[in-house]
């Protein structure tokens, strides 16, 4: 993934309708929204390195399924936890403990589903690392560092092994070296 970003310019001032980042400029092509960007690069560079979208239509379907699970089930409660645990106090807002507890419960249910899935396959979409796994790294990093909630991963044997596998990939370690987490 790092090689993909080195070959294109990450643009931080380019106009987007919603004022969102990240934005990439690849020649005359501009694209925003992180999941759209990773899909674009995975497709564009599929002949180089790891096949991140799956080798068959069925594998692609599973990758897309787990990307949707990440986007709609994993990331939302984790995003809320980041906001309420890490940033509310810094903004002078009292963290909403009821909301934090609800988000932890939602995330625990998602991780329980992951534990079941990962008991039968090495990665979420099968036996090969894919975008489905990669997409968990940015916000998963907050869970493991900063929130003090790494136990949510560690108390699940298969999720813990999966996290160690994906988060120790040389490409992710390089990303962390180039862009150290703010927390």
TrEMBL record:
A GO term for molecular function: glutathione transferase activity
Domain of life: Eukaryota
GO BP term (any one): toxin catabolic process
Alphabetized InterPro entries for the sequence: Glutathione-S-Trfase_C-like, Glutathione-S-Trfase_C_sf, Glutathione_S-Trfase, Glutathione_S-Trfase_N, GST_C, GST_Phi_C, Thioredoxin-like_sf
PROSITE patterns reported in the protein's UniProt record: GST_CTER, GST_NTER
GST C-terminal domain boundaries: 56-183
Record bears the keyword Acyltransferase: no
Catalyzed reactions: RX + glutathione = an S-substituted glutathione + a halide anion + H(+)
Pfam families assigned: GST_C (PF00043)
CDD domains, per the entry: GST_C_Phi
Stretches assigned to the GST N-terminal domain: 1-49
Family, similarity comment: Belongs to the GST superfamily. Phi family.
Name recorded for this polypeptide: glutathione transferase
Originating species: Sesamum radiatum (Black benniseed)
């Amino acid at each position: 993934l790092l090689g993909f970003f080195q070959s294109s310019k990450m643009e931080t001032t380019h106009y987007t309708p919603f004022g969102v980042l990240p934005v990439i400029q690849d020649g005359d092509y501009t694209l925003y929204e992180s999941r759209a960007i990773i899909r674009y690069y995975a497709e564009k560079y599929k002949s180089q390195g790891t096949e991140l979208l799956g080798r068959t239509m069925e594998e692609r379907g599973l990758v897309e399924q787990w990307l949707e699970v990440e986007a709609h089930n994993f990331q939302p409660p984790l995003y809320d936890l980041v906001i309420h645990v890490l940033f509310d106090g810094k903004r002078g807002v009292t963290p909403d403990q009821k909301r934090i507890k609800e988000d932890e419960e939602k995330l625990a249910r998602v991780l329980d589903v992951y534990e079941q899935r990962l008991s039968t396959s090495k990665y979420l979409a099968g036996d090969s690392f894919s975008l489905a796994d990669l997409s968990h790294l940015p916000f998963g990093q907050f869970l493991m560092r900063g929130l003090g909630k790494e136990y949510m991963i560690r108390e699940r044997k298969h999720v813990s092994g999966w996290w160690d596998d994906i988060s120790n990939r040389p490409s992710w370690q390089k990303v962390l070296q180039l862009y150290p987490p703010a927390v």
